[in-house]
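Quick illustration, no need to memorize.
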Amino acid sequence: MRKITARTNVQWRAATLGARFAGITSFVAKRNHFIVKITMKTTFKPFVFSACRIALAVILFAVASADIAFAQTTYLWTGAGADINWATTGNWSPAGSPGAADTAVFGGATTTGDPTTANNAITADMTVASLIYTNTDSDLWNVTGVPFGVTLTAGNMTVGGLAGNFVTDVAMTDGGTLMVQGDLTVGNLPTSNEKSTLDLSGLSNFVYNASTGTINLGPANYSYTDVILSAVSNNITAGTINDNYSNTSSSSTGTFTFGIGTNIVNVGTFNVAAGRNTTTVQFAGEGGLRIRGVNGTDDSLANMTLGYHNTSGSGSHAAGTLSLNGIPVDIRLGTLTLGRSDHTPTKTSYGSGTVSFDTGTVFVNTVLMAITTGTTASSGTYYSQGIGTINVGANGTLIIGSGGISLVNQIAGTSATASTGALNINGGTVICSNSIVKTSTVGTGTVAMSGGNLDMVAGTIGTADNPIDTVTLSSGNLHLNVDGNATEANLNANALSAGGMTITIDSVANVTVPTTIHLINYDASASGDQFGGFTLAPLPAGYTGSLVDHPTSGTIDLTISPAGISVASLLWVGATGGTLNGNWDIGSTANWLDTNGTPTTYADPDFVHFDDSASNATVALSASVAPPAV
């Protein structure tokens, strides 16, 4: 039994005064009923009896009013009962069993040596306001049995939460469902590295439903975790997920493992690995993953950060990996940040973020890779480094929205600390609605393609002023949209390597006369002539054209004209056979080569090109000519 607790002193005093006036010497309450002890005069007197009735009414009003509530009870599991059932009153201190308004605490009283043997269990649906596990010994587990078809519901849930160097390992088993409706915290508050574990793989379902709530895994410095979700179905709606995001003083490695069934995550912000943590988000085997913003609709986009090194030190890192190969995915993100480093480290320290998938679709409006915002160390050297990587495998499609891809954004540094951002297409498809660029000239950006498709719906790959450092196009299809008024090439690279690539022109704008469009610019001195690595697919209906090689300048152009206008692309030789002949005439002297390397004559409006490969550098005009481009 517990005393009735009043939320306002006025009501409590009213009940107490009324009781004293009427001769009621005490009153106590047990949940859902009252025991009232009344002391009466030996001689019945009507006015006293009436006063008792009034006082009793006052007490009952005070108990029943909205401002009166039963005190929440904290029940500590002792396991002293005859079984391991929550409903057995002898298993708790105080004796009883927790209800919807109470807190259930499991310490180290009856822990087990493995995560599959239950030391406490429910047999029917149970709800508690708060569920807390505080066992502190490594390799000893609190294991809660939740049978199939039964749901354990908790307002808030904490695994650990203790100040000290403790390990708290918790598991649930027997195939039931865990539902958490408030904050979920896993990990302690140690002064040296300690890893805690929450293993829900013995359950069929895990539901987290708190749109403004936080899932905090590794809540403090030196704290990190392994979390394994339920085996079959996981449905999470949360404001924020912080996965191993707080340990800034010592390196640690944790994991976050989805189940082999359906996994749905609706979240505002999903942060993976900060400070000095290394964390991999992965699957136990087969499964599927759907990620949206907190509202769960296609218009609701989650934001994700992988690998944020936000601490100082002499050579440390944060590395976050989203490892999804072999898993069907359906993910929609607003901003994806991969690899960020700041503060003032005294040795090379990096933040690294990696996403790998090969099945399904990932939409990201904006990709930000390899970001550094720190300052120089006292020695004057800049040590912050960002590393970002996206790997798109055979059956994966990455769709980039209007924000495009920034491969690198480094404010300072040397080659030894160069931040790097890499987009790797390994048989998959990337569709970009804006440019793939380097935001800073410092740092290294790479694009590599081995099979698959890179579809530039809009924007360019690099710019003339800030080209991509290395572009390797081993095989596949490069889809471009061309504009006769464009001043920027579609692809700009320092080092270019190409082989077995097909260029497909998906759309043509502003071409009404024969036109030369710069498709590719690269550093020929660093790359050699890469023209042979490209072939041109048939142009859209209504256009004819061809690729033109300029090996010395490192450019590959598209000569294009509306259908019905015959245009050739010619390279000046200045000789016929072995005889020098510098006459540029119309239809007479075959001192040009066409795109097949065959000697030919000039006719308006052929495109012409002059370079250092000519046998004769002297050109003598013998007729009026009108090439569309020279």
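The longest strand covers residues 349-372.
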